[in-house]
């Protein structure tokens, strides 16, 4: 078996690549014509992977001593190779190396290059300062902070809650997260167009209220079937939030600051996704896993308030965005 340190190192490198890809993929998708559709597709693809995950994990976990779990990594490795090949093909025109035009003095060229790099660094620092001094990135980031926090907390703790508090069967409850992820997948595919056409701010607010109501059903109705259905519909109505927020960001931020602003928003989102499951675990270790319900309700209410605080974007998309 490979040493544990190798796992830590490779997961660290994979996370860097995913973070970089998340920021720029969303920026690119939000900058083309019909952005709400393309954002819905790429985020639905993500949820399709999350939907498959519990089934794969259950198969690996129940294989016993005969499990060759390490062969699982051949699957994401193969997908990564195919993905890399498709990206190289899709962006082949923008990755061509421009040839040098004529001979130049090496010293002068090196001096110009150093000056150019210094100027770029100063511009980057100034851009970051400008973004962080505005309220848009903080308010949209706060919405994502509570949104991703609620999603990860729910998907991570619902099985233990249903088993310990509702006396559910572990073998059956292990598939409830698949219903949640399946709801997210369908929501991102089916609700993207009506959300865009009927008004993103209005529709997301309606979805938030519905999610809070369904969360109360999950909490107050002592029935496992009702809880499973409520969780699936919470996933359905909250599914479009990520793509819709990215589309809103394309109107709140200029083309120059779009990528950097989204990167900071992703940081807030991942902070929520990392922080709240840990807080839930710490509290549950002393008070019991039943604390999941008030924590989830508070997160969804905070998410709703966060959305109300997001500034209203301009009526027209950013004119600097690509219309390919």
Automatic annotation (TrEMBL):
Its main location: membrane. It is found in: Membrane. InterPro entries: MFS (IPR011701), MFS_dom (IPR020846), MFS_trans_sf (IPR036259), MFS_Transporter (IPR051788). It comes from the Eukaryota. It is a multi-pass membrane protein. Residues 1-314 form the Major facilitator superfamily (MFS) profile domain. It holds the Pfam family MFS_1. Gene3D superfamilies: MFS general substrate transporter like domains. GO terms for cellular component: membrane. Residues 1-19 form the signal peptide. PROSITE patterns: MFS (PS50850). PANTHER family: BYPASS OF STOP CODON PROTEIN 6, TRANSPORTER, PUTATIVE (AFU_ORTHOLOGUE AFUA_2G17270)-RELATED. This is Major facilitator superfamily (MFS) profile domain-containing protein.
């Amino acid at each position: 078996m490979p040493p544990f340190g190798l796992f830590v190192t490779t997961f660290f490198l994979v996370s860097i690549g995913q973070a970089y890809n998340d920021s720029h993929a969303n920026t690119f998708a939000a900058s083309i014509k019909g952005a709400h559709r393309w954002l819905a597709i790429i985020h639905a693809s993500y949820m399709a992977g999350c939907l498959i995950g519990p089934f794969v994990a259950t198969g690996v976990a129940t294989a016993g001593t005969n499990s060759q779990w390490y062969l699982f990594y051949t699957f994401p490795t193969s997908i990564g190779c195919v993905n890399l090949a498709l990206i190289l093909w899709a962006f082949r025109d923008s990755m061509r190396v421009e040839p040098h035009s004529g001979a130049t003095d090496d010293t002068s060229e090196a001096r110009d290059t150093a000056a150019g790099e210094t100027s770029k660094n100063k511009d980057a620092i100034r851009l970051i300062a400008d973004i962080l001094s505005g309220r848009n990135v903080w308010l949209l980031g706060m919405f994502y902070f509570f949104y991703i926090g609620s999603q990860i907390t729910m998907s991570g703790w619902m099985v233990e809650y249903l088993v310990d508090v509702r006396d559910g069967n572990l073998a059956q409850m292990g598939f409830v997260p698949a219903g949640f992820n399946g709801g997210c997948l369908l929501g991102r595919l089916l609700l993207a167009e009506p959300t865009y056409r009927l008004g993103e701010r209005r529709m997301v607010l309606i979805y938030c209220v519905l999610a809070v109501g369904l969360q109360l059903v999950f909490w107050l109705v002592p029935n496992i079937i009702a809880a499973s259905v409520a969780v699936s519909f919470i996933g359905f109505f909250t599914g479009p939030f990520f793509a819709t927020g990215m589309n809103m960001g394309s109107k709140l931020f200029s083309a120059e600051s779009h990528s950097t602003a989204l990167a900071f928003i992703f940081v807030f989102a991942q902070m929520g996704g990392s922080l709240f499951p840990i807080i839930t675990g710490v509290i549950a270790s002393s008070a019991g896993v039943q604390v999941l319900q008030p924590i989830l309700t508070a997160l969804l209410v905070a998410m709703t308030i966060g959305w109300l605080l997001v500034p209203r974007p301009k009526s027209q998309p950013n004119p600097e965005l690509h219309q390919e």
